[in-house]
Amino acid sequence: MEIDSALLHSKLKTFFGYDAFKGDQEAIIRNLIEGKDAFVLMPTGGGKSLCFQLPALVMPGTAIVISPLIALMKNQVDVIRGFEEKTIGIAHFLNSSLGKAQIQEVRQDLLSGVTKLLYVAPESLTKEENIDLLKEIKISFYAVDEAHCISEWGHDFRPEYRRIRDMIQTIGKAPVIALTATATPKVQSDIQKNLGIMDATVFKSSFNRPNLYYEVRDKVDAEKDIIRYIKQHPGKSGIIYCLSRKKVEETASLLSINGIKALPYHAGLDAKTRAENQDRFLMEDVDVIVATIAFGMGIDKPDVRFVIHYDIPKSIEGYYQETGRAGRDGEAADCITYYSYKDIQKLEKFMLGKPISEQEIGRQLLMETVAYAETSQCRRKMLLNYFGEDYPKDNCGVCDNCVNPKPTFDGRKEMCLAIRLIKSLPEHFKIEHLAMVLSGRSNAMVKSYKHDTLPLFGEGKDHSDRFWSAVIHQGLLLHLLGKEIESYGLIYVTEKGEEFYSNPWEIRLVEDRVFVGKDSDDDDDDAASDKAAMRGGGGDPVLLSMLKNLRKDMSKRLNLQPWIIFGDPALEDMSILYPITFNELHSCQGVGEGKARKYGKEFIELIKAYVEENDITRPAEFVVKSAPTKSADKIFIIQSVDRKLSLEDIADARSMDMDKLIEDIEGIVSTGTKLDLNYYIRQVIDDDIVEEIFDYFKNEASSDSLEEARAALEPDYDELEIRLVRIKFLCEVAS
Ligand code: ADP
Ligand code: ZN
Prior knowledge:
CATH topology of the largest domain: Rossmann fold
Radius of gyration: 32 Å
Bound molecules: adenosine-5'-diphosphate, zinc ion
Largest sheet: 7 strands, parallel
Oligomer: single chain
Low-confidence stretches: 519-537
């Protein structure tokens, strides 16, 4: 078929409105028009769809596009239909969502030759009536989108994808183009083999995202760290990924409590809430979305400035995809991951429930993630190497390891020892196995091969197996060692490695990083004692007395008791944290948002002036407010009170006793959230009593202490009455 470049460009302009092709697009399209198979590896956003849409429109016949997601299909079909108003039949999709009449319409358009593109789900392609229909029409080519679904080593294996080749053979021969955004050399080989396109022209774009900064942090106090990070980047859009729905919910509510506009997103939410939360993120009504990996498919928000992995992803593919959602606009963006080996162990345990073959694959992928997390090498280099791409520089300047390089050592001797071991074995083994043997550690696998009797067993016992696996990983980056593609993960010595071995040159190696990885889930006690320690004074005494004077002043002016303005703990926090914005003030103890705004202005001004005059460096760290009750309960209580349910009913619904409920309500109120309990108080307490107790707090009490109040008011009034009115008072006056 004769199609010159000018014609292709004019079609590009008329159909898509673009003046030029992006990257390899033109070469890919020409290759297809010439009737050759193609394998296209292009990162998300690279412009894959155009590589099959444009040729489909210009080539005779109908192109079959196999795609796993119904939603994406609809989307693409709508876009193409927009090109030619007269014939919506130009693009169709066939999947299980269609009714009889719709299928009939597709049929007619296919047979009459109007349809240039037909999107099908792989499972629809196996249906006999569909096959029979497709046999009758001329096929221009087959496009297999998201082709990594073919491979068990990809991050989204779909068994139906394995049958595509058979289907194609039954329907009729035509060129095949396979496209994916993530493929390791192993996945690429699986795809080509499985589709029978070993001779396909391979088009690989670079996976480097130069504007992304990669960092892995020790998972210690991660929540606090995340809150601090977000507060340092106010108003910026970001995504936080967690592995479990529960963690998503908890984190989203913790962020909200700390004054960050955040919403959760996971597959357990109903469709309406999910769509709403996603929209509010896209419309910038909220800054942060906390999500499981269910979030992000097809999301194209260009200005996501940070992607945080609260939990380590299960594979590097997943990690690359998720971090890839940052910085689509090409501006700088941060990718921060919290890592703890404990999380890895959790993931491993979780895998035990799966079939053995899947477990083995899952474990291998996980080990790659561990190597990535623990490395002291350039992260960009590691990532690109994982996708079979070479990064030419040693220091990219835009990852934590390049910004803070670790000292290196001349690793000639060590590398040679590793190579000697690999060469001495008749078979190839995985990194962990080799590292165990070198360090002289034994496990079932080492024993079963009798490798604990090898002369080289323990030859490197001065170092740990961790050290040795770092050496081998770096051997891979230096191309002295290679990884077998077929039997995934087995290590061999490359030609370059042989050269090095017979005549070693200097190589600079680094040891891996050590992560403490104490998960903050487990150290609530520490956090509590930290806080207690901070509360015990230790603040700036001069500032504290100035703050107290100001409070006295205001209390006279406003005719309010001093503690109603701010309690002592709040003033102490101010003298430690030097807050100079409402938001920061809000992180002091007992200072709700309302209170900060109502009474805070003069305090902030005083602190600001004090900080400037005395040249004080303010602490970057703020005391993080923790959720006072389990967040689900909290939300339930707030909602129920809004709906004016009786406290008895609320307690019943949560199967808690009244005492616990009141305690929870006190907790909620103490963080500055206002609850209007008047509807209930009116019913159960006499107006006069309410007035008297209220009066006590307003005019007599010297603090909001419940004990003090009980000492002063009992036995005339009972505890429940005192507590309820105290809550009313805290909400109406003191916050
Ligand atoms: P992928 O499927 O690789 O993630 P898409 O096909 O969705 O990428 O394309 C990504 C973006 O690039 C889309 O907004 C698309 O309109 C745009 N695009 C594709 N080709 C071109 C081009 N030649 N010139 C300008 N923009 C393009
Ligand atoms: Zn780097």
